[in-house]
Amino acid sequence: METRQFQLKDEHVRLCDLLKLAGIAGSGGQGKHMVADGAVTVDGRPESRKTAKIRAGQTVQCHGVQVVVTAK
After folding, report:
1. How many CB atoms within 10 Å of residue 52?
2. Could you tell me what percent of the chain has a pLDDT over 70?
3. C-beta separation of 7 from 72 below 8 A
4. Domain of 8?
């Protein structure tokens, strides 16, 4: 599994936007479809909220890529 780091610029980022910014999804809309399809987990649990607030210390996984979110 590939691991990527993502540094927050604010307090949180929406899940669909994180998938786009981390390079997993081509767009925020594609990220929303990935979440709706059940392909995304946050901290090891399936996440169905497309705009879930992802904060520093959380880990997101999708399509064999793990994104570790860090503070600014």
Report:
1. 19
2. 100
3. yes
4. 2-70
CATH of the domain at 18: 3.10.290.10
Q: How far is CA 2 from CA 19, 57, 64, in A?
A: 14, 18, 6
How many structural domains compose the chain? Answer: 1
- For the cut 90, the answer to whether the pLDDT of residue 12 exceeds it is yes
Cα separations in angstroms, 12 against 9, 29, 32, 37: 8, 19, 17, 23
For 29, the enclosing helix (H) or strand (E) is: helix 28-36
For residue range 21-30, what is the model confidence (pLDDT) as tens digits?
999 999 989 9
Which residue has 């599994």 as its token pair?
A: 1
